[in-house]
Amino acid sequence: MVNNMKMDDTIAAIATTLGESAISMIRVSGDKAIENISEIFEGKVDLRNVKTHTAHFGRIADENGNTLDDVVCIVYRKPRSFTGEDVIEICCHGGIHVTKRVFERIIETGIRPAQPGEFTKRAFINGKIDLTQAEAIADLIKAESDRAYITSVRQLEGKLSKDINKIREKMIDIIGLLELELDFVEEDIQLIDKRKVNDMIFETLREVESILKTYKFGKLWKEGLKVAIVGKPNAGKSSLLNTLLQEERAIVTEIPGTTRDFIEEKIIVDGIIFRLIDTAGIRETNDPIESEGVRRTWKIASESDIVLFVHDCTVPVSDEEIGFLKKLDELNTKAEIIFLNNKIDLENSHDETFKTGYESIGLSATKRIGIDELIGKMKQFAVTGDIGEGSSVIITSERHYSALLKAKDGLIKSLESVKHGESNEFIVVNLKYALDALGEIVGKVTTEEMLNNIFSKFCIGK
After folding, report:
1. What are the pLDDT digits (tens) for 204-234?
2. Same domain for 11 and 124?
3. Which of 29, 106, 276, 301 is 20 to 30 A from 322 via CA?
4. Range 318-325, long-range pairs (CB < 8 A, 24+ positions)
5. Cβ-based neighbours of 384, under 8 Å, separated by 6 or more
6. Among the three residues 94, 129, 164, which one is the final residue of a domain in this structure?
7. Secondary structure of residue 67 in the 3-state scheme
8. Tell me, what's the pLDDT at 28?
9. What percent of the residues of the chain are helix, what percent strand, and what percent coil, each to the nearest 5?
10. Alpha helices per DSSP H over 332-370
11. The last residue of a domain, from among 112, 129, 146
């Protein structure tokens, strides 16, 4: 676990994916990195004497002097490294066995295996990056779309940190003036007009709220929208999934109840991730396995952003389906429900969507009729809002969002204190609460539990 880290240890990890490849890279960081690797590296130079940011060819030898592999060692001397410590990156051949053997030899020198996120945590502790930049590294690695990638790069460049720190500086100035005035309370000297204080706090509140608004888009770009495909058995749900994916992912038969569990896949449309979930058909059944599938369908629908209700339009819309739609409305009040009149290519199809009260799309999942219109509706729902791609700062982290909400609460309470003519002590208490909340975002205010939670989500080697 991350909370067992000893930050004065020298650590190592395989930083590349373990598998067959041209090159693998093993990262080593700590006070003994250069000294210990020098003991097992044989080349034309002694690594202890080389300059920083230099690469050196040689071999890693076992305890008997036998070659384990030819390698290139890249040396970074502190503080000019990612972690701020002495770092060596050892590039060896990319086979699974050879990489493991080189790594094991490194551990034999007394270097311990790194834990998830430990290199990045050291970079944060040593002041090389702040907390938002550390989190951006993990987001960048996990980015699944162009928009998620761009958002992560912006955060890694420090754009969010810059905006948060500017807001904090304004708040520190306000707090400083109010606390200074407290020193002259007996002389009844007013150093700053309370109307100006009110205006300064209000302006700060507006800036916090502006960043808060971006969370909807940040979360969307990072995680995507959850799209449940639901309906009665044999309505064409699995055919729709296959058509959207443009591959045969789900089994399609004329036998009702073929899909008994859910299938989840994703598509990316114009940088928006849609996580499609094909669910078991909804119906009353005595089959315990199918009943469990139906239960899961309702759970998935209740948690989704978009629900695609697929109806077989070769048969009338049933009272049972109307009941299903009403239940969906009750279970998930925030979801966009789109009624799909499927199989319109068949001769006996007919449109009874007027019975549902929902906006509908006529389509044929097998013939791709109406698919473009459906995707357009999904995109339209995804981008509805007043913050768009042009925003320079987009928050994607629930942690950042929660901290900003705390800051907003503190600022609102401080405005109320000003409005009610309360003393500076009350105003300052609420402002400091907001200041600390913003400090949590960039790492000015931290706890060990917070750091452990953040860095435990990283991959080993980063």
Report:
1. 999 999 999 999 888 888 888 899 999 998 8
2. yes
3. 276
4. 318/232, 320/232, 320/283, 321/231, 321/232, 321/356, 322/355, 322/356, 324/230, 324/232, 324/282, 325/356, 325/358
5. none
6. 129
7. strand
8. 97
9. 45, 20, 35
10. none
11. 129
Residue length of the chain? 462
Of residues 8, 16, 129, the one with CA closest to residue 461: 16
Residues 229 and 345 in one domain: yes
Rounded Cα distance, 184 and 149, in Å = 52
Contacts with 201 (C-beta within 8 Å, 6 or more apart), sequence order = 174, 411, 414, 415, 418, 431
Q: What is the CATH number of the domain that holds 99?
A: 3.30.1360.120
Q: Locate tokens 């860095």: which residue?
A: 455
Residue 388 lies in a domain: no
- b/e 158-181 (16+ beta carbons within 10 angstroms → b): bbbbebbbebbebbeebbeebeeb
Say yes or no to pLDDT of 250 above 50: no
β-strand pairing of 112-113 with 87-93:
unpaired
Question: What pLDDT was estimated at residue 385?
Answer: 55
pLDDT over 90 (residue 47): yes
11: confidence class by pLDDT, cuts 50, 70, 90: very high
Q: Are 144 and 183 found together in one domain? A: yes
Give per-residue pLDDT as tens, 404-455: 999 999 999 999 999 998 888 899 999 999 999 999 999 988 778 888 888 8
DSSP codes joined into one string, 384-438 = -SS--TT-S-----HHHHHHHHHHHHHHHHHHHHHHTT--HHHHHHHHHHHHHHH
Which residue(s) pair with 61 in the sheet? 67
Sign for the pseudo-dihedral over CA of 158, 163, 166, 167: negative
Long-range contacts of 203-207 (CB under 8 A, 24+ apart): 203/170, 204/167, 204/170, 204/171, 204/174, 204/411, 205/408, 205/411, 205/412, 205/415, 207/163, 207/167
Distances (CA, A) of 192 to 172, 177, 185, 207: 15, 7, 13, 22
Residue 285's domain spans which residues?
224-382
Could you tell me if residue 459 is inside a domain?
Answer: no
